[in-house]
Structures are given as C-alpha cells and as structure tokens.
Amino acid sequence: MRIAETSDLWWKNAVIYCLDVETFHDDDGDGTGDFAGLTQRVDYLAALGVTCIWLMPFYPSPDRDDGYDVTDFFNVDPRLGTLGDLVEFIRAAKDRGMRVIADFVVNHTSSQHPWFVEARKSTDNPYRDFYVWRKDTPPDTSAEVVFPGEENSLWTRDEATGEWYLHMFAKYQPDLNVTNPQVRDQIAKAMGLWLELGLDGFRLDAVPFFLETRGEPKDQAARINPHGYLRALRSFLNRRNGSAVLLGEVNLSYKEQLEYFGGMEGNELNMQFDFLSMQHLYLSLARQDARHLAETLKGRPQINPDNQWAMFVRNHDELTLDKLSEGERQEVFAAFGPEKNMQIYGRGLRRRLPPMLGGDPDRLRMVYSLMFSLPGTPVLFYGEELGMGEDLRQKGRAAVRTPMQWNNEKNGGFSSAKTMDLVAPLVRGEYGPDRVNAAAAKRDPESLFNFMATLIARYREAAELGWGSFGVIDQGEPAVFAHTCSSEGGTLVLLHNFGEDSVKVSGRLEPDDGPRGFRDAMLLDLFDGDSVGLAPDGGFTVELGRYGCRWFRVHRKGDRLAP
C-alpha cells in the first residue's frame, strides 16, 4: 500500500478522539471546560497519536441533554468561549497535524430555540413548518420512545395552539421538519459556516430519525425519498470542502446501513459506526468465545472503497446492546453490569470498559488491540487511553461523562474552581484521579496510555488496516479471533485470545498468488515479540498468553522494511 494514497481519503486510517469541551479542561477557573483549556491540551492529544478530534456539541444550549438541545446552530456556547477561541483551537490542532470534526444535530432543536418559540405562537406563523405538527390526537407510541422511563410518547400537546408536536427524543427537543426547504437551507448555512471556520466534517447524530417522514400525509410521505436529502447534504459538503467527512450514527442492521452509505455508489454517509460488531464483541468477551464476533464481521456487506466503518468499544452514550437477543443481552449484563444501577433503558450499560473488565490490564490491552486491528477506523472516547472509570452516582448517561483526569491534584487538574462549582463531579475511589490520571500515565512506561500510543503508531504504519480486505483465519481455538488484512501485496496477521488460558494457535494463510508461495516468508512481529516462521503452504503456529494479542506482517527476504 502506497502511503501517498492514504491522504486522499484521510478518514479511512484516521485515529478519532471524541471529547466534550465542557469536561476536558477548564482554563478560566469557572468550573466548566472551555476552548482555551482544550487548546492548552492539544499537545497531549498529538503525543497520543490522535489524527482527528471529534467535538461533542459546543453550540448555545440550555444543556438539558449535554448540548444536544441546541438553541443556535451558528454560534459557540458562551460558557465554552467565543468563535475566536474555537478558531484558535482549530488552528492549534491543525498545526499539529490533527483534523477537527464536530457533532451536528439535524434531527431536532431545543424547545427554547427561537424557531420553536416562534412556531408555537400560531398555526400560521412563518416558522410553524420548521417542525412537525398534527391536529388529531396521536396513537399510543409508548413502545417507540427512545428513552423508556423518561418519555411515554413521541408526541406532546402544545397548550398554546392545541396541536401536537413530534419529538423522537425528549419533549424539550422538538423534531425539525427536514422536508421543509427552508430548514434544509438553514442547516446548510450552519454547516457552511463551520466549514469556513476550519472544521473537516461532522458527526451526524441520530441519522435515521431526522430522515423520518412521520407526520407527513401518507400520500406525500410516499413521494418523499429521505435518502435524497442525505445525498444532497453530502453533495453540499463536498462542494464546500472536498475532503470533509460525514460520520453517521446509524444503529441498524448491516443491510439498512448499506442504504445510508448510499449503496455501492457510496454517495451518502462517508462513515458509519459499526454497532453490530461492537455488541457482538461484548457477547464474545462475556462468553470468552470469539466466534460470535467473527460471524458478525463475516456478515458485513461490501461497501464502496471510499466509505469506511468506524470501530469503537465505548462512546459517550449508553453501551447499547439492543441488537442482541434478550438472552444474549442478559449474559452481557451478568458479566459486565449485574447491578440494576449499572443498566439503563433495559438495553444497555452506563459503564466504562476498565471497571467492566475488573481493571484487568491484560484483558484491557487485548480489547484495544483488537479494536485497532479490525477493518475500519478506530474511535476513542476521552479518558479511554488512561483507563478512566464511570461514576454511578450520576444520572443516566452522565455516568461516563465525568471530567478528564489530568493529575492527582485539586479537581484532578481539570479546574481550579471550587469542587462544588464543577460542571460535573469527578470519579471517586479506585478510578479517581489520585489513582488514574494523565500525568502519571505518561511517565509510566507500562501504562495503558503508553501502550495505546504504541498501538496507534503501529496502526498508522499499517495502512492495510484501514484500506485492506478482511478475512477470518480458520483455526481450532474458539477463544481466539484470528484474521488478516491485505492490500496490494501487503498482509497483516492479527491474533487475539478472548480466554483466560494460554493457547497454541495453528492456522494457515490463504494460498499466495506468487510463484514461490510462502517460501522464505515469515511472520514479522510488529511489537516487541519474536517473529514466527511460515511454512511454504502458509501454515503457522503461535502461542498466545492469557488474553494475549499479536500483530504480524508477512515478510519475505528482500522486502524493504521501514526502520
């Protein structure tokens, strides 16, 4: 794989790091993180090896849903700084070779947004059609609510006009009507603004919901192609910035996800999160049986070469397990979140990975090694590189959105404010900043941070992981996930042991196209282990320790290796 080619589609082998400005670093000492503080920590992210920073919503907001309830798509929340502070951060990040993308919420606004305030005044208000309304009493939609226990309907009656408005999420987040050309125009203008200020794309929140045509008359809804809007959005983005990316949150079946890529034309979303692989990864971890993950990955559809999957093991929401069967979900709950307070919405967990795995360093390293080795682009949630834990004292998904832990001093180095003034409490106990923090981790050669930094460096040197074809290696150990990633003559062999016991893995690579087969070839270890010989027919045997992981490159005499 020629490295020169990889920069054209930079997202295919990026390392994306998601963070919330308000919980990352506080510069002015008011207890809330800000862009000035984030800018002071850009070098930390560069040292880790991050190539793309994903900002959670930073727009003005009442902050009832962590910023996803937006009141102005064209500005920065004053708690976080100014437009000038944002531009300074983007400039600092790009100076260190990092791109910046941001969450964009197309599905809804806050009920305090000026558009909705106007829309509620009368049924003939110019902004009325910015949202979705109905005059008749809606049917029972309690079974469809996204957050069970928090809402009991997708519709709420507005007392001012007596009509009902749609909200796929909370009642204080009314859905935008994206079939309205004026709404589309405002969304395009907002995206255009942020692109002009230096953003490199957007993570689109809840994509299937904003393409929803619920509320439209049946005859009109039948004529609307919601995917046409997604194609138009992608086209607009590419006109404004040809290298910008749309990363979509689409938690659906692979068949349905293929539609959101734009089929084999690949002209809708550039990237999508692979929720199915993530969920079956946890099932495999719970059972210590890698076959569930392997079968899931085999079922991935072929996508356009310009598209990409985003791989993750944790994000800022609940760890959803909604695509598993009820029995499978209960297995994962039993293994990683047996207490009711650890579970949420009946479908997920509100925990971070280290506590779920009992802080086992071998198992943690294996999981992150696996994530980086799977075909796709790895996405990290802030603090994962340190092994941060959750705070189950907090409500809902806030349990995993605690302040970043920089050192073992006051407020974990996050802020100089009084502890009572912090935007969110810090984690206490075993995973608190006195035991888990960035300053200590950077100085400890055996830390998860330094393991992750090395992992990222090897990932960036192995373009096959983002660009190559994927294949599962047949071998006899159920606990072992063995696969290859190959591209233009380069092949990586990647082995991961999901089990407690050491194993000896024997497998065989697919026949080589060259006349010599695998004669004079070896498996070159990409970390610090010993290399392994390859039989002429591609056979090999490798020992894996408890939760062991190995990365190899097929190497022949005469191959010119980078130093």
Q: Your description of this structure?
A:
This protein has 563 residues and is of the alpha/beta class. It has helices at 3-6, 35-40, 42-48, 83-95, 114-119, 181-196, 207-210, 218-223, 226-240, 254-261, 275-287, 291-298, 326-336, 353-356, 361-373, 438-443, 448-461, 464-467, and strands spanning 16-19, 52-55, 99-104, 133-134, 155-157, 164-166, 201-204, 245-248, 271-273, 308-311, 319-320, 343-344, 348-349, 377-381, 469-472, 480-487, 490-497, 503-508, 521-525, 532-533, 539-544, 549-556. It has an eight-stranded parallel beta barrel, surrounded by four helices. A six-stranded antiparallel sheet has the order 15-16-17-22-19-20. Strands 4-6-5 form a three-stranded antiparallel sheet, with no helix packed on it. A hairpin with a 7-residue loop joins strand 15 and strand 16 (480-487). The two termini are 17 Å apart.
